């Protein structure tokens, strides 16, 4: 049996339903095949407000009505069988614009050869039946069929002038399926989220180990690691960089083009007379970001240390996203102010003048609506630090507060005075968090090292240094890069290595990320094994593709206290036992009975991982306990303390080092070879995992709805009872929570049944 869940749906919109379904599977009861969308009649117990489900149901009815209108309008829409039930309807204009034949898209430049506005409004597609074509891809070979890829061909009535009647458009069915989904088509695999870091974590974790210059320049896998680290943590070092003035240019151009500013395409950081930037002095340089006064500040900054013979001059770095997250937890009003009130940044010099107004904390819109609007209310229950997009902080280049309005306009004096006080109070709190010693990573850069960091996230500073003689000075050579070329290179490599690297089996990281994504999709449970894992989810045995955030292949074994498959019991081999009770030839066969030897792609950022049903049940129970406490205790947010997480990981690593196991894919199981080493399984593992199932709320930072009264959920001390025939509160006479009881009313009622 294989069970598939969309964990973001489990967390966001169907916890109760998911638990019931899991219980049914565990108890051998049948589950109906759930659709991918929640229905008012499905009995889904949701964490979303009722009005949101009502809106979703209304949208579903509107979609049904739209499909009916499309079916009745063949002059506007073409119906195509994409293997998802009834025909799906596509606009003729949409299909024509998708044509990528050599007449429409240049085969060399990949540029469009026609203008969409030239397509006649009354164009119509003459659609032929869907065809199966030869598919010799590796996935097709694994699937055991080379005829699974579908295409649809069409010619055109009233085509663009200049195109003949023989002009034919070919579109893959999988492309049309992506368009037909309610969610936006995913062109590239999702990237991992940002991860906050502290100084201690940066020093201790192997994750932050420097990357060798030679590997960076020649190995795409090393380059991918660098780009991914810049995405997740924003800071990384290269070592072994040649002592050459053009080395930093080569490092940048390995990713994309340099960003040229009035400083040039590259620039030197060393003490010079009559400096036009404080960085060109030997003075102490506080935390800042570069070029905030430009409309498009650089996304990445590169600093190559060529010489470092002077005393002092250590480089300091801190994660502004971590500071913003801490501000949200400890000073929410200040967080809101810094996300609302813009300030000015300028470069005021005889040769150049630049000015831009920015908010210190810039937020990204989310699937739950525009967070930049939602966060304006201090009581917003959204955990906003996950959606911090940029931070703007550069005290040396901050313009006077009188120039902080958009386009440097000066507000009316009364509003200006008020806003200045608000911004100043919030900025002071943020500044304190920026300078928290626990968040500052200090490094005396050595010749041959190059630091690369996200200039819109990582704040950098420098301690003062002594100016040495020529040849003994502190000399760093720097360069910038814009965001577009960085993101382009990252996406290209991410598509390659996301598919290729299957050496790891850490699907949990992606799962945790999926749990945080807002969605209205309902949990889907399948009782049949999937036909194939696809880039977007699974292909079921009936040929329908299902878009999933995460696929969990349930093995059905309780792995919390023993190996999946024991090899020795009391010194006797039991491998023959498995051949009698198990039909698949490997653990992955439990996931997909037709393709027993197909390795699941379960690296750190994959959509699939193998898990036992008992472990999944435990995970859901853990989440439900947390949600229950948040609802009952009126908790705004609950976050694992960094210290607790570090201690837990350390303990887990320690116990893993003391545990010797044989994996489920060893030769004895695949080929029933009983010469493989035995499995050792100390009882400590069982105890550790069982204890880990219990929520230790003392290890969490908890923010209550009413900060000054963590027990406000007790209300007035009485249970609120609703009259069956009215909405009257039976305890009205007790007064409001936080107020004194009205004793005169109690005196009046003392001789009645109510009292």
TrEMBL record:
Keywords: Dioxygenase, Iron, Metal-binding, Oxidoreductase
InterPro entries in alphabetical order: AlphaKG_dependent_hydroxylases, FAD/NAD-bd_sf, GBBH-like_N_sf, TauD-like_sf, TauD/TfdA-like
GO molecular function: dioxygenase activity; metal ion binding
Any Pfam family the entry gives: TauD
Co-factor requirement: Fe(2+)
GO cellular component assignments: mitochondrion
Record field: compositional bias (Basic and acidic residues): 52-72
PANTHER family in the cross-refs: GAMMA-BUTYROBETAINE HYDROXYLASE-RELATED, OXIDOREDUCTASE AIM17-RELATED
Protein family according to the UniProt entry: Belongs to the gamma-BBH/TMLD family.
Protein name as it appears in the record: TauD/TfdA-like domain-containing protein
Originating species: Elasticomyces elasticus
